[in-house]
């Protein structure tokens, strides 16, 4: 089945496709390995986080990865960090939410599909009311993918943080709804906060260059194996847990 045109008007076909799309894991591994050599991220863990992450991965628990968002380079540096971290075994089994405009070019869509992307139609781009139905479907698809054993990676701030790279910005409720819907399907997602820092930014509104994005600091918090039962509570937990991880990433830079 060929990939559909990723437009809001075509969202039904889009999510029909991404409900079951599976990339070639060998190609994904190769791409992640190349990015790891190119970006050379540095990985740190909270006390006990490395072994706890290994354990939940061995148990094949579906991971809900929360990552702070600093620049357009993040998808590449995050992929590089996944290769160099305890996430390597799940490469090819994690769906990554990405804004729809990244799927506009067919060649770029092919690359994002290979990396496990799922399009997100954002309210800030199309209007809150216009994206409501598509957003509901997207969250259902993510929950279904988790019920099938996949992880889901989310930048829960929703957009690049150009205010203060040391502070997690407001977290939308979407990540909470994804976890909540997965729970309704009988799944118990494990929250893994994966924070990154590109170092001190004199002007946070200026995105780091590709060269400055190299050797980013990544810090993993201790996986949270039991999540609250309400979307809002989950979202609040995500922000608190991700901030702790971000503090660690900044300190380790």
TrEMBL record:
Keyword Ubl conjugation among UniProt keywords: no
Q: Which Pfam families match?
A: Acyltransferase
Q: Which CDD domains match?
A: LPLAT_AGPAT-like
Q: Keywords assigned by UniProt?
A: Acyltransferase, Transferase
Q: Tell me the ranges covered by the Phospholipid/glycerol acyltransferase domain, including all copies.
A: 63-199
What SUPFAM superfamilies does the annotation carry? Glycerol-3-phosphate (1)-acyltransferase
Top-level division of the source organism's lineage: Bacteria
Indicate what this protein is called per its UniProt record.
Answer: Phospholipid/glycerol acyltransferase domain-containing protein
């Amino acid at each position: 089945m060929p990939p559909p045109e990723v437009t809001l008007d075509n969202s039904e076909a889009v999510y029909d496709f991404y409900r079951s799309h599976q990339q070639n894991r060998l190609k994904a591994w190769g791409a992640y390995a190349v990015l790891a050599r190119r970006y050379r991220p540095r990985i740190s863990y909270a006390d006990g986080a490395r072994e706890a992450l290994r354990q939940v991965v061995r148990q094949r628990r579906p991971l809900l990865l929360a990552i702070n968002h600093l620049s357009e380079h993040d998808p590449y540096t995050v992929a590089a960090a996944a290769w160099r971290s305890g996430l390597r075994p799940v490469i090819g089994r994690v769906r990554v939410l990405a804004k729809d405009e990244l799927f506009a070019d067919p060649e770029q869509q092919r690359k994002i599909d290979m990396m496990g992307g799922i399009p997100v139609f954002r309210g800030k781009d199309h209007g809150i009311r216009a994206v409501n139905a598509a957003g509901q479907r997207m969250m259902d698809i993510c929950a279904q993918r988790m019920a099938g054993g996949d992880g889901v990676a989310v930048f829960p701030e929703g957009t690049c943080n150009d205010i203060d790279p040391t502070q997690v910005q407001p977290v939308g409720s979407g990540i909470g709804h994804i976890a909540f819907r997965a729970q309704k399907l009988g799944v118990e997602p494990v929250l893994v906060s994966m924070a990154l820092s590109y170092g001190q930014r004199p002007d946070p509104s200026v995105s780091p260059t590709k060269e400055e994005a190299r050797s980013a600091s990544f810090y993993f918090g201790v996986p949270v194996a039991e999540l609250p039962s309400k979307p809002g509570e989950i979202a609040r937990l995500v922000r608190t847990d991700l901030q702790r991880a971000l503090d660690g990433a900044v300190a380790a830079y």
